[in-house]
């Protein structure tokens, strides 16, 4: 927890191995050892602050898609379905299971449902650790509490370790956490229990001004009971109680705190016996009850009640310190505190215990601390067993906590199952594979869920067919029947029609750029989640596009070739068109992978294609190109596409064209082989594919 910019997401990213920029110091241990990238991909889940879902899938499909990619291939589909159904039930998503998720423009599920779907995605593979970045952001307080209760249940029921960032939790939400890391400007200012203990710490250790007076009062009330608090406080006039505390009462003061609800007399305090206050929980909040003047007994009559959110007080205090440029002071106070000494001891104990220690970590801090003393061989504990422990407990830890700690200790030491868990975790930590499924399975799942859905989407299909249909229509109507006329006046028309046929797929490829850029956030998340590798992703994208391109090019090339009455082989005419379009698509992917954003991507590809036009051989013949530009013509794939079409048209009838030169001589194509040219085109496809693969793998536009 911490104010905006405190470093919450940064801390989470560092822990989850998702930080891509900056220098990180220190070390991170999972189960006692530094985690590998592969372990983090496979055995941890990360729910980002913003939704990264596939809008055209339903909630159930989204979870099943993830399950098929993240759970073992050997597991039958029925078992995966059952797991997804159980998750839907658990996450309260049954009512919207078959509703398409939607996107900002097409309303699908609600914000809370989307958040729960994201959590479901992270849970599909039953991760050891679940990271949640502001899981409650954008949700109303009721839904937020509901989501966090669900998360708490995951921890309680499955033993999943949860690390979540929260910005301004409700009292109820705050109470769900076992411990809180409070950050300010990237510094750790508190690490311990939430609620009153945190308040107590703040009151004692933080050098803050205004808020501290409130904190102090509360702290005294909390730790010493009302009697002493009343005596000490000149600030507040309120009656107060917290569930689980010794009692409640009205505290006299000057009324400054109680918003004019009616203060009791200064210095006066009356006990009241109103037990069982409606606090949200032991540590989440303190309930303030503003009573009638001087009459705490009449709690029922005319009483105003207000919940005091400890998280809010802490945040307010931290923000105040930040505003005064004193965040470092809070951090320094923590560094010197007894709390830090205790935390360090706990940490050493967990590290020493490794996987077993962290998995069987006791629930309460007091118990954990007692355990730590035993584990680290503290003098008190060396007395042995329960007695030794009781000695520790007698000092600073309550007897109840001692019993709990002893129980946990016995569990740690005696439970054979813990050894098995230990072994299992060690195996997981040693994993060398970031993804669960082989590449061909990943490819199949991507095609099954995403491509199949695209192929049923009119919008998706239209964006890939209509442009080619329009071009084919124009070429058809403009150049109709010119292909078999070898009159000198018609030769330019033929070369021009072939030129247009060769270059337009490259221009049209601009429409494939957004696919990669718009999906970038999803791709990064799914890759980091270990759903698939870059090769699988690229292969799926290309398979999806090339299959459609195959059908579209077959249809349009047949109509154009025969209606224009072009010469040569139709199969060459089609093949050039198909390979040319494929090169354009993969070039678009390469440009998209290199482009930091849509603006750059949109301008980059058309600009590049324009430069290629100049050197394709039709606007200026190869021999006429200045020598220092000829290299560019050699690596211009459009030159080979158009060249192959020209060779197909004229190789059997190379008529005189200009200046005593035949067509192929004039365009420097004489002696060239159309199949070699098609082969060159194919090489471009492979080279661009490889470059796109490298760019997608190594270029990280997403800085976090
Ligand atoms: N320990 C640190 N050392 C140096 N810089 C840090 C540290 N922690 C965070 N930062 C920097 O502070 C900035 C804010 O961090 P971050 O986005 O993690 O904050 P946040 O608490 O998640 O904010 P918000 O609530 O607005 O999302 C980032 O530029 C980050 O790089």
Summarize the entry for a quick read.
With 704 residues, the chain is of the alpha+beta class. The chain is built from 29 helices and twelve strands. The longest helix is centred in the last third of the chain and has 30 residues.
Can you give a write-up of this model?
58% of the residues lie in helices and 7% in strands. By secondary structure, the protein is of the alpha+beta class. The protein has a domain at 439-698. It has a five-stranded antiparallel sheet. Residues 2, 4-10, 22, 167, 186 line the site of adenosine-5'-triphosphate.
Gyration radius, in Å: 35 Å
User: Low-confidence spans: pLDDT under 50, at least 5 residues?
Assistant: 223-307, 379-400
Report how far the terminal alpha carbons are from each other. Answer: 19 Å
How much β-strand is present in the residues? Answer: 5-15%
On the 0-100 scale, what is the average pLDDT?
79
User: Main β-sheet, in a few words?
Assistant: 5 strands, antiparallel
Q: Report the count of strand segments.
A: 12
By DSSP (H or I, 4+ residues per run), the number of helices equals 29
Bound small-molecule species: adenosine-5'-triphosphate
Strand arrangement across the biggest beta sheet: 8-7-6-9-10
Question: What global shape is seen?
Answer: elongated
Question: Class by helix and strand content?
Answer: alpha+beta
Fraction of residues in H or I helices: 55-70%
């Amino acid at each position: 927890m911490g104010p905006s910019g405190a470093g919450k997401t940064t801390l989470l990213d560092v822990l989850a191995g998702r930080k891509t920029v900056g220098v990180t110091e220190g070390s991170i241990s999972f189960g006692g050892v530094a985690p590998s990238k592969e372990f983090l991909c496979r055995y941890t889940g990360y729910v980002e602050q913003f939704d990264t879902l596939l809008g055209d899938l339903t909630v159930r499909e989204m979870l099943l898609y993830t399950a098929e990619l993240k759970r073992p291939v050997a597991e039958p589909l029925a078992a995966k379905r059952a797991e997804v159904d159980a998750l839907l039930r658990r996450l309260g998503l049954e009512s919207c299971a078959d509703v398409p998720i939607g996107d900002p423009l097409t309303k699908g599920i609600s914000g809370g449902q989307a958040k729960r779907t994201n959590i479901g995605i992270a849970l599909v593979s039953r991760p050891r650790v679940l990271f949640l970045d502001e899981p409650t952001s954008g949700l109303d307080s009721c839904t937020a509490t509901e989501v966090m209760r669900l998360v708490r249940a995951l921890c309680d029921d499955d033993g999943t370790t949860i690390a979540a960032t929260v910005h301004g939790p409700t009292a109820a939400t705050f109470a769900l956490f076992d411990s809180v890391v409070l950050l300010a400007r990237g510094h750790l200012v508190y690490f311990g229990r939430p609620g009153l203990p945190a308040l107590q710490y703040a009151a004692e250790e933080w050098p803050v001004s205004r808020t501290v007076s409130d904190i102090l009062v509360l702290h005294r009330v909390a730790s010493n009971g009302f009697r002493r608090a009343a005596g000490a406080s000149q600030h507040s006039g309120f009656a107060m109680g917290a569930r689980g505390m010794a009692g409640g009462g009205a505290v006299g003061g000057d009324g400054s705190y109680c918003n004019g609800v009616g203060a009791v007399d200064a210095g006066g305090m009356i006990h009241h016996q109103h037990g069982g206050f409606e606090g949200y929980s032991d540590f989440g909040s303190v309930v303030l009850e503003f009573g009638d003047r001087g009459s705490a007994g009449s709690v029922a009559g005319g009483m105003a009640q207000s919940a005091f959110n400890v998280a809010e007080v802490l945040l307010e205090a931290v923000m105040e310190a930040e505003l005064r440029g004193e965040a470092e002071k809070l951090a320094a106070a923590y560094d010197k505190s007894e709390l830090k000494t205790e935390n360090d001891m706990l940490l050493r104990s967990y590290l020493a215990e490794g996987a077993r220690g962290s998995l069987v970590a006791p629930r309460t801090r007091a118990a954990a601390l007692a355990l730590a003393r035993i584990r680290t061989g503290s003098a008190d504990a060396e007395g042995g067993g329960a007695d030794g422990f009781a000695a520790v407990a007698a000092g600073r830890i309550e007897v109840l906590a001692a019993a709990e700690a002893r129980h946990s200790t016995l569990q740690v030491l005696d439970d054979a199952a813990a050894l098995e868990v230990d072994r299992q975790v060690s195996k997981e930590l040693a994993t060398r594979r970031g993804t669960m499924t082989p590449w061909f399975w990943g490819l199949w799942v991507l095609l099954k869920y995403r491509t199949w859905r695209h192929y049923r989407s009119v919008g998706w299909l239209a964006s890939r067919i209509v442009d080619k249909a329009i071009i084919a229509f124009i070429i058809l109507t403009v150049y109709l029947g010119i292909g078999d006329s070898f009159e000198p006046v018609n030769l330019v028309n033929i070369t021009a029609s072939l030129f247009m046929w060769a270059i337009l797929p490259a221009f049209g490829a601009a429409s494939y750029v957004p696919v990669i850029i718009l999906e970038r956030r999803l791709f990064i998340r799914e890759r980091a989640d270990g759903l698939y590798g870059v090769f699988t992703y690229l292969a799926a994208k290309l398979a999806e596009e090339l299959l459609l391109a195959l059908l579209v090019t077959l249809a349009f090339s047949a109509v154009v070739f025969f209606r224009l009455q072009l010469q040569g082989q139709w199969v060459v005419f089609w093949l050039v068109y198909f390979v040319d379009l494929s090169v354009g698509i993969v070039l678009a992917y390469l440009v998209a992978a290199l482009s930091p954003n849509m603006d750059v991507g949109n301008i980059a590809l058309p600009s590049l294609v324009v430069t290629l036009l100049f050197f394709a051989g039709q606007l200026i013949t190869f021999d006429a190109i200045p020598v220092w530009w000829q290299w560019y013509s050699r690596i211009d794939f459009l030159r080979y596409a158009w060249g192959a079409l020209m060779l197909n048209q004229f190789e059997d009838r190379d008529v005189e064209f200009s200046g005593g030169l035949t067509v192929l001589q004039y365009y420097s194509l004489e002696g060239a082989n159309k199949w070699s040219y098609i082969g060159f085109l194919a090489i471009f496809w492979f080279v661009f594919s490889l470059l796109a693969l490298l760019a997608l793998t190594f270029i990280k536009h997403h800085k976090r």
